[in-house]
Amino acid sequence: MLALSSLFLVGPMGAGKSTLGRMLADLLDKTFVDSDRVIEERAGADIPWIFDLEGEPGFRVREIQVIDELTRQPDLVLATGGGAVVRPENRAALAGRGIVVYLRTSVPTQLARTSKDRNRPLLQKPDPRQILTDLLAAREPHYTAIADLTVDTDHIHPRALAEQIVQYYLEHHENA
Ligand SMILES: Nc1ncnc2c1ncn2[C@@H]1O[C@H](COP(=O)(O)OP(=O)(O)OP(=O)(O)O)[C@@H](O)[C@H]1O
Ligand SMILES: O=C(O)C1=C[C@@H](O)[C@@H](O)[C@H](O)C1
Ligand SMILES: [Mg+2]
């Protein structure tokens, strides 16, 4: 049984971390937080601006700070940025301080779910399919390594997925 009270959602862009995070917080009576949004609020700038001005390394420094703070708080559902797991500091914080759920999602599904949205600087290049394929190959071992639960998101409605995750939480959390 796990004594940890927060749920951390990890997975690639378009996995549904933000969508599911809101539903889970509602179902489990927890507070939803999205690390990308907190980074933007603190910087007073959106993610494309941060990438333009500071590059990905600058964004990752901000992300490490925010994830360190948020993972110390009880009773959150935290949607993390798709690339948070590339930094070992984030992997340690996520794995040690809450229940980690990996939303496994294929590249075609990621593409379909992110195609209308210009807010992801890493995809604003000529071949997003190749970029997502390379990112997933590099990151999948990290997502898997820290996950307590892995769920496939390709062919399931977010509501049904949220119910599966709630079921797991209720079975594995001692104070649920
Ligand atoms: N299981 C699902 N089935 C179908 N559509 C979904 C599912 N989960 C999310 N979506 C849709 O996919 C899009 C992307 O979802 P969302 O923004 O929650 O992903 P994310 O993991 O937070 O992405 P990012 O890392 O870029 O913030 C949204 O339009 C959402 O409605
Ligand atoms: O996959 C990534 O590296 C990113 C995903 C987004 O959630 C944001 O954190 C940012 O656009 C970087
Ligand atoms: Mg999101």
TrEMBL record:
EC code(s) of this entry: 2.7.1.71
Top EC class, one word: transferase
Gene3D superfamilies per the record? P-loop containing nucleotide triphosphate hydrolases
Instruction: Indicate which residues the UniProt annotation says bind substrate.
Output: D36, R60, G82, R139
GO MF term set: ATP binding; magnesium ion binding; shikimate kinase activity
- The positions annotated for binding Mg(2+) are S18
Q: What SUPFAM superfamilies does the record point to?
A: P-loop containing nucleoside triphosphate hydrolases
Keyword entries, A-Z? Amino-acid biosynthesis, Aromatic amino acid biosynthesis, ATP-binding, Cytoplasm, Kinase, Magnesium, Metal-binding, Nucleotide-binding, Transferase
Q: Name one GO cellular component term.
A: cytosol
Residues bound to ATP are G14, A15, G16, K17, S18, T19, R120
Q: Does the keyword ATP-binding apply?
A: yes
Q: Which CDD domains match?
A: SK (cd00464)
Q: Is the keyword DNA damage assigned to this protein? A: no
- InterPro entries given in the database record: P-loop_NTPase, Shikimate/glucono_kinase, Shikimate_kinase/TSH1, Shikimate_kinase_CS
Q: Which cofactor does it need?
A: Mg(2+)
Q: Name one Pfam family in it.
A: SKI
What this protein catalyses is: shikimate + ATP = 3-phosphoshikimate + ADP + H(+)
Q: In which pathway does it act?
A: Metabolic intermediate biosynthesis; chorismate biosynthesis; chorismate from D-erythrose 4-phosphate and phosphoenolpyruvate: step 5/7
User: Per the UniProt entry, what is one GO biological process?
Assistant: amino acid biosynthetic process
Q: How is the cofactor bound?
A: Binds 1 Mg(2+) ion per subunit.
Its family remark reads: Belongs to the shikimate kinase family.
Q: Spell out the subunit comment.
A: Monomer.
Function noted in UniProt: Catalyzes the specific phosphorylation of the 3-hydroxyl group of shikimic acid using ATP as a cosubstrate.
Protein name as annotated: Shikimate kinase
Q: Which gene encodes it?
A: aroK
